[in-house]
Amino acid sequence: MMEHAIEYLKNINKAFESRARLGIMSVLMVEEEVDFSFLKETLDLTDGNLSSHLRALEGASYLNVEKQFIGRRPNTRYSATAKGKNDFKSHLDALEKLIRDNKP
Amino acid sequence: MMEHAIEYLKNINKAFESRARLGIMSVLMVEEEVDFSFLKETLDLTDGNLSSHLRALEGASYLNVEKQFIGRRPNTRYSATAKGKNDFKSHLDALEKLIRDNKP
């Protein structure tokens, strides 16, 4: 049984470990595209904290980032890539197996 | 629905975020007490990496650590505290809600 534990732990993805990243990806599994303010309010994160997690996810090719202007104001929009959605699902599957093994 | 997302994200516990810590706590939900070598082999971690995660969990009062000797060899044994088990269950509950919301 412990052997089994090792197996699915390998599918737990470091890129999605933190609460912020779990939150960002969860939002982007439901919403096709959101802007920075929406994520900030929904996840209750500071600008700096949210930015750094978004950059990390973009660096892993999990996010598409589109910079545009609404009038004169910059507005940056985020969506999950197919790879991002796929790898996030694998991560959730691994967590689900871990939870199942920990249920009494 | 996004409002709901924020709520349970708050129960995701930073102390349990990493794969290593999820693994350590999972083992200690099943096994009453284990030694360092058992954790190292089961979780496939280096000495340094495992030590640092064990210290962090001990610092959060999630682990009991008992140093003893088997003959002349030091043998350190680890078990989860009641608080550790309880907080880990809350963490898994929060992850479970996140997974449920991400299922198609």
From TrEMBL, chains A, B:
Coiled-coil stretches: none
InterPro entries attached to this UniProt entry: WH-like_DNA-bd_sf (IPR036388), WH_DNA-bd_dom (IPR027395), WH_DNA-bd_sf (IPR036390)
Winged helix DNA-binding domain: residues covered: 21-99
Protein name in the entry: Transcriptional regulator
Taxonomic lineage: Bacteria, Pseudomonadati, Bacteroidota, Cytophagia, Cytophagales
